[in-house]
Amino acid sequence: xxxxxxxxxxxxxxxxxxxxxxxxxxxxxxxxxxxxxxxxxxxxxxxxxxxxxxxxxxxxxxxxxxxxxxxxxxxxxxxxxxxxxxxxxxxxxxxxxxxxxxxxxxxxxxxxxxxxxxxxxxxxxxxxxxxxxxxxxxxxxxxxxxxxxxxxxxxx
Amino acid sequence: xxxxxxxxxxxxxxxxxxxxxxxxxxxxxxxxxxxxxxxxxxxxxxxxxxxxxxxxxxxxxxxxxxxxxxxxxxxxxxxxxxxxxxxxxxxxxxxxxxxxxxxxxxxxxxxxxxxxxxxxxxxxxxxxxxxxxxxxxxxxxxxxxxxxxxxxxxxxxxxxxxxxxxxxxxxxxxxxxxxxxxxxxxxxxxxxxxxxxxxxxxxxxxxxxxxxxxxxxxxxxxxxxxxxxxxxxxxxxxxxxxxxxxxxxxxxxxxxxxxxxxxxxxxxxxxxxxxxxxxxxxxxxxxxxxxxxxxxxxxxxxxxxxxxxxxxxxxxxxxxxxxxxxxxxxxxxxxxxxxxxxxxxxxxxxxxxxxxxxxxxxxxxxxxxxxxxxxxxxxxxxxxxxxxxxxxxxxxxxxxxxxxxxxxxxxxxxxxxxxxxxxxxxxxxxxxxxxxxxxxxxxxxxxxxxxxxxxxxxxxxxxxxxxxxxxxxxxxxxxxxxxxxxxxxxxxxxxxxxxxxxxxxxxxxxxxxxxxxxxxxxxxxxxxxxxxxxxxxxxxxxxxxxxxxxxxxxxxxxxxxxxxxxxxxxxxxxxxxxxxxxxxxxxxxxxxxxxxxxxxxxxxxxxxxxxxxxxxxxxxxxxxxxxxxxxxxxxxxxxxxxxxxxxxxxxxxxxxxxxxxxxxxxxxxxxxxxxxxxxxxxx
Lengths: 156, 683
Fold this sequence. Notes:
Largest sheet of chain B: 5 strands, parallel
Oligomer: heterodimer
Largest interface: A-B, 62 and 70 residues
Shape of chain B: globular
């Protein structure tokens, strides 16, 4: 039955979201994003998140290349990248990532290269995790959209 | 580069003003495309017209092209092509537009820099929609007071004839006064008043010359009224008697109306107070005298008692230009302070607005002591200190009884000379100066419906938060004494969140926040203040350097947002505790630079129903599954948004919140009533 599939998908979405919120991976800013999604901007969340992924990967790569550089000394420059990463992460509600950024920044302010490196690794880890989860979320939502399209009108 | 201009017609400000702040034109500048996009959508959601660009240089060009195309600029601090502060400076210099700074970094130095460069506000990323809903105030504030008067005159003419506007002009004029002379006693009040009357370049018929009802002017007015007798006072005759150049009959008429209302209120209050005082064995004769007042029939009595009180009160110093206006208020205050403050005294207090603590005294001729403190009676700090020492403020809970149709001066229990937020008139405060005055004036217009209950709640809450917030006032110390609200644990959280209130906090936001604090029983319509308060407290927390504060902030915000007015926590408690501990753990973990799996373990370790990552997740899933049916039922009635994602949002939220409080989560745009929900206890 089509209805069951839709229900299952919805349950999946809820479960995933609940998990993400509970784990502190996402915070209420993400909810705000979802609220901004309406008829006039139907895919707002996925658009923003995709831009975020794109930018974040750039930033992470920059950060890594900076830190890996043997003669690395420009903490300022790193700080700039970090700042942007932090801003965008918090804007989409990626709470855990943002928190790691905060720690990263602290290390960077102390010119603690080792600490920065560790924080960067953690950041990359968190980022991958988030990306996977959000991809999953979008997939489910796509499926739901499909299921809804096929549904009988009454069932809405 | 994202350039997305939307010009809402070629309408001039007037059109926009009709529905202001809807349609306010904002220019958003941020090099981060994500933030920019989110900001743009948030602003659109607030019904502003948004233009965006990710380059400061482009922004400058656009602004230079036509300054009138925009009302407000929001700019990020860190931008590659130009420093955000530089842009701020240039915009301020060249275009005199209000600029709001935006940053992911809440460093105090940065915020200070923003202020010194002239920013109107400093917002922290992520920006929330509640904060954005308030930003129009900066535009209003920036505009010349004339324009503002015009807006409100337009609104008010429908409401109360000339009264509103006169009140408006009064307050806005006093703004100017306070800007000019913060702490000096204004000797040339009348001169200024006259000057102000001519200070009006708008020839629209709506506009009336701004009249400053200075102490001097008011004294004359009262003298004239006394001479004629209140019941026989007609504006024309009063005008003639006063013999003041430039004063119009309309000015006098509106002032008279206010004066009458004030007296009426006074007498009601006085009666009540006298009763109370009598019950308490109060010796203050002024009480008895006032009690004997019947409506506003008996001026002589008032005068008499005023004389009496003023003699006894001569030691202290009434505030500024409204010194004379004080007297009856002071009189009442005096009586009150000497007794136990109970019901109704707030009324009187309300009328006696806090003024600048350090305004020098004005000699009060006895006859004119009971000049009505229409709006700006200012009890001195000393008075207020007396009050505070009497621990009168503990009785906030009993303000209900006084019937105050105008709901003036909701919270005048401030011991220090701070603005009594909530009442339009009380906006005379030192540090706050203009903004508060104007903000409060606006408020008057909007809050005509304030009942006493709201006064009550607001008073109690306001006082604390307000006082706490405006720590720069010299009498701040005395306000601390007032913080005993045993029934209101919110005070602690208030204190908590407001301690961080530093200069970066706009006084406007403060006034809005304090004026709109809700108690549960109170249903203030404006959610802005709520939001403002939240914003402020959030911003406050953020201002502190340190991870823990960020964590706290997150929880703070999360708690408020998600769990609104929950009075029983149940699962929520554990969840908060869980997330808090999780955050702490995560922060601690990261801070101590451990980067491996244990981090996750630590993250989950404390959660009540998540023992360890895998197990925890399973447990969580199981729990969720068992709740699914329940959740589904919950989602059904809830979908206002009618979106799939919103459904999940709702369900998600409901899974974290007790079902009955589910509805709170829908008020995500900040319109939940203020929580008596004590943050402090939750965290």
